[in-house]
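Query structure, 275 tokens:
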């Protein structure tokens, strides 16, 4: 009978010595540490380590004094506590595993978002969860609707960098005015928005079509990495244009128009497919 109970206690995360000490105290208590060792067979060199472990876990109680005495938590209370702890652990495991599974799916999937308001809501969510850096390509109209969330992000210590198409002024973000904002608006016939948060998630899409606006949100590294790098290269180019515009335009025309002619497949630069 006693051996069976010892095995049961081991299944409740008792070590062999802890189980023997607890059973001894159930049979007779209170006892000194010396008496527990003598009656349980736990070596005297280990008994106080074992009793301390049981006390910290709440399985026994200690009466302090010159010679501490020990008494067990009643068996019914012990089982009740173990059941509660097990249920809490199951609930935590269920929640954590579900979050992990959802996060794993997010890392592999690309989610479609329809509607300008819905796109901006998702962008705001990403801004609110960002911890280190936000890269944002945006027109004035959308910036005004995101300004509050962006300002709050900087207050949390997030570095906010904006590539602005149109006149955007900010006292909290690093703003780079795109040198061809007007021309690009004309070329594409609309406005887009691209957000990279912490180099780990991206929202990108057209936001000038009202309810027909469409964007994608993803954590897929195969898209997050190249989109983020394209934004960083835009920043490189704007820094270079700021310092060496005259030299570059001498080689490639005003606003690098010769490069645009070289790589555009539309003779009039009109990309109507976004409408």
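Result returned for the query:
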């Amino acid at each position: 009978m006693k051996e069976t109970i010892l095995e049961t206690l081991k299944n409740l995360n008792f070590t062999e010595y802890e189980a023997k000490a607890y059973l001894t105290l159930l049979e007779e208590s209170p006892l000194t540490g010396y008496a527990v060792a003598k009656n349980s067979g736990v070596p005297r060199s280990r008994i106080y380590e074992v009793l301390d472990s049981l006390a910290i876990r709440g399985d026994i109680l200690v009466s302090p004094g010159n010679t501490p005495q020990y008494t067990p938590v009643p068996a019914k209370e012990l089982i009740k506590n173990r059941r509660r702890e097990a249920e809490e652990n199951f609930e935590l495991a269920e929640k954590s595993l579900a979050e992990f599974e959802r996060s794993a799916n997010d890392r592999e999937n690309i989610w479609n978002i329809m509607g300008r308001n819905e796109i901006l809501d998702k962008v705001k969510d990403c801004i609110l969860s960002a911890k280190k850096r936000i890269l944002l390509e945006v027109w004035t109209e959308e910036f005004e609707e995101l300004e509050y969330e962006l300002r709050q992000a900087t207050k949390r210590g997030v570095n906010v960098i904006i590539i602005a198409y149109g006149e955007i002024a900010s006292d909290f973000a690093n703003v780079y005015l795109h040198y061809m904002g007007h021309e690009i608006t004309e070329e594409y016939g609309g406005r887009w928005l691209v957000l990279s948060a912490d180099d780990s998630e991206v929202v990108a899409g057209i936001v000038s079509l009202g309810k027909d606006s469409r964007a994608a949100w993803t954590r897929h590294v195969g898209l997050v990495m190249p989109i983020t790098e394209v934004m960083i290269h835009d920043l490189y180019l704007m820094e270079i244009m700021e310092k060496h515009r005259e030299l570059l335009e001498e080689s490639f025309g005003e606003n690098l128009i010769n490069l645009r002619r070289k790589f555009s497949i539309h003779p009039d630069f009109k990309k109507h497919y976004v409408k």
